[in-house]
């Protein structure tokens, strides 16, 4: 065999393996999309299947079928859940902690079977920013699947959607499960068993299916001793792709109303993934912005108006302007502000992002800087921990 033929024969298995991994990755993307659709579903809950799945979980803990109370939103669940919230004698945790142990041990058993890595051990930000490039460079399929399925759904659904909703609930009692928003780990195990051909054993598979049914059937739910409170799914959910969403991450966002609305009218407002009060979206004014103490809420409200409009309406005084050395196609502008930041007078440095957004534009943003800066370049350097002269020497910033 010639040297050329020998090299070709060695490359063929490598190429075939890569093509197989790329095909599996595309299958995983399709499955992730299916599960994401369940997570964002706005159809009325499938109450029969949801109740049967909960009953199955109660049975695994030796409990009879509970009574079911349905509510139209997580906020509406508070009175019903509060009335059922008890602590048993001797300081033991509420009964629902047994269910937490049940699902935790299930996930650990399945993770061990599929050889999955604990997501808490992942580096942050994700170490694999481009799944296809990672596979082409020799990264194994499993870590790509974990980043692209569990990681993407955890960041997009659990951390963005569920956490934003959770933060808006006025009170919480005991443990709750997120129903359709538990999609991350359920989808991960589904993808691994389908693509790697590692089916669950019968017992684990039956329990996994109960949790999967709840993802496909209902919103949040609160299991208690003899009663289970379940919430309907939202009637509307508005999202957008997250920045650099190579793994399909999404975040809550709506520019003209609530990002999430439930059948009883309760909802949550979100501006590019940040929960905000209704006024930020419905009626942002200079007066409300000036009175707002939360810097993130204030930033979102200004972005909702637009920086140029805010500067004009607020009558900000321009202190100085300069070509941005780190982004020479744009200017740095320094303004006096009409409100205090963290109790102190402050100035606003208006800059343009060095990176291009998904739509081809560059985002304008404002940074609070100490009031003693008169030179925009000195102020820009301060935000990077540099002197003005050091910042002026930058070739490019992001």
UniProtKB/TrEMBL annotation:
Residues 178-394 form the DUF6745 domain. It comes from Actinoalloteichus fjordicus. It comes from the Bacteria. Pfam families: DUF6745. This is DUF6745 domain-containing protein.
